[in-house]
Amino acid sequence: MRARRLAQALLAAAFGAALAASPGGAAASGSSFDATYGIWLAGFPIGEADVTSASDGRRYEISVQARLVGLAGLITDGRGAATATGRVDGERVTPASFAVNSASSRASRTVRMGLSGGAVSAVEILPPLPEHPDRVPVRSAHRRGVVDPVSAFLFPARGRLAPTDPGQCERTLPVFDGASRFDIVLSYGGTRDLDKPGYSGPVLICTARFRAVSGHRQGKEAVRFMEDNRDMAVWLAPVDAGGVLLPMRIEVRTQIGMSIIEASRVSIDGGGVARRASN
């Protein structure tokens, strides 16, 4: 498991959170989300991602288009796209399909995955991953009760709790990306006020920990780094309609510096961003 995989998972997770809503809220009557995110690494702008998602209250679909920009784009011409579909039943997310394609000037790879009832039913990886004797086997049990990386944070907010209540963060996400099974363990990291174009008000901060389960190479430095990593967080802003949590910023420390993914343009159909109440 490379550090960038968890960064991608957190990014996709934050996208999914934009559709999260308590029962009877915005998602119950349908909502859509459209945004552009800037991506920085070690203080330098390296990419952008366009995200669109839609939900009719039960079914959801998310599409992500990412690309490198500036000097990074000139060097590697990196780009990627991912999609996910599934259903939301109360506080439960049940993915149905996941696909991701990543490409650069040197290589490309496509992963397609089908899921049914929270279990992986089919996986196709082209070209196939190389065989390594130190790779931890993925057991049948590791492919059940999972979500794909894009659907990972598409969790309905707990309706009995306020949008910025610490309990909204407290959960473990079992993720399978077609090759590796890992957990993202979320916990409450605090709240703070954020003031930027398009939003002014409180944000809920969820810290994250990475826990490798299978599919990774035993003893790899990158795996140890991510399991020891304490510098990962997602900032979520409450939205007026239905307790939706909108991702504003994602932070993941990598082996070459801090990666920051921050919204530069957001639009939600079905509810506006909650603003700071005037005194």
Question: In words, what does this structure look like?
Answer:
There is one protein chain. Helix content is 12%, strand content 51%. It is mainly beta and 279 residues long. The protein has one domain. The protein has a 13-stranded antiparallel beta sheet, with helices on both faces.
Class based on secondary structure composition and strand pairing: mainly beta
Strand content range: over 45%
Mean pLDDT across all residues, rounded?
79
Output the strand order for the largest sheet.
7-6-5-4-3-2-1-13-12-11-10-9-8
Largest sheet: 13 strands, antiparallel
Helix content: 10-25%
Gap from first CA to last CA: 49 Å
Kindly provide the radius of gyration, computed on alpha-carbon positions and rounded to a whole number of angstroms: 18 Å
Domain module count: 1
Shape: globular
Number of helices: 4
Q: Name the helix and strand elements from N-terminus to C-terminus, one letter apiece.
A: HHEEEHEEEEEEEHEEE
What's the total count of β strands? 13
Low-confidence stretches: 1-29, 271-279
SSE topology:
Elements: H1 3-17, H2 26-29, E1 31-41, E2 44-55, E3 59-68, H3 70-76, E4 79-89, E5 92-103, E6 108-116, E7 119-126, E8 171-176, E9 181-196, E10 199-214, H4 221-228, E11 232-238, E12 245-254, E13 257-269
Antiparallel strand pairs: 1-2, 1-13, 2-3, 3-4, 4-5, 5-6, 6-7, 8-9, 9-10, 10-11, 11-12, 12-13
List descriptors.
globular, 279 residues, 13 strands, 13-stranded antiparallel beta sheet, mainly beta
How is this structure best summarized?
With 279 residues, the protein is mostly beta strands. The chain has helices at 3-17, 26-29, 70-76, 221-228; strands spanning 31-41, 44-55, 59-68, 79-89, 92-103, 108-116, 119-126, 171-176, 181-196, 199-214, 232-238, 245-254, 257-269.
